[in-house]
Amino acid sequence: MILLVTVAAMMAAMMALSGAALAQARGGGDVCVSQGGQTIYDMGASSCFSNPTSQAVAINHSFALAVRDSQAVAINRSQAIARNVCSVAALNGQNETCP
Known about the structure:
The chain contains one helix and nine strands; from the N terminus they run αβββββββββ. By secondary structure, the chain is of the alpha/beta class.
């Protein structure tokens, strides 16, 4: 189960990075990408935060927070919060937290 969530989170992160590049090229989009405590891309209503050991991605009016060796992905008006060595993905209005 954890492996599946981790794979989903990493796939979403890769898609978000691609989406961020497309959004930037088109002058729009709603994407936030934070990796290692640095905001890599932030355009639109979504927001995200990560500490130096984590990654967070939020797309389409979403919020993602990842701390302490964790990954969080939130897509389509969702909220994902990951703490203490875990991975979480929230889609289509979900609010997900781990552990």
